[in-house]
Specification:
Number of domains: 2
Radius of gyration: 18 Å
Number of strands: 0
């Protein structure tokens, strides 16, 4: 079955119609209320590609430029934390 929105996927899973693939941020409330559980699946999480975009030829305002720099800096920090986490898991699995 293919469902078109995150909310519809959550409702379908809660109704017992199957499994869903959603970001953790999407299901935080359902996890807290114990309506859904996260399954431990090999080779997850799936890595995604995100892009920060702006209109070609348009000069960014000072606020937009600051947001761009902040976003890029935070993305690098997040990537390093994730890579460290994966490396630790890999070391533990070899022990």
């Amino acid at each position: 079955m293919e469902v078109g929105s995150n909310e519809a996927i959550k409702q379908s899973v809660q109704a017992g119609l199957g499994l869903g693939l959603l970001s953790r941020a999407t299901i935080e409330q359902e996890l807290e209320l114990k309506r859904l559980v996260v399954l431990d699946v090999a080779d997850f999480p799936i890595m995604r590609h995100w892009y920060l975009v702006h209109r070609r030829g348009k000069r960014l305002s000072a606020v937009a430029e600051a947001f761009k720099q902040f976003t890029l800096m935070e993305a690098k920090k997040l990537l390093h934390r994730k890579l460290d986490s994966y490396a630790k898991k890999a070391r533990r699995s070899r022990e």
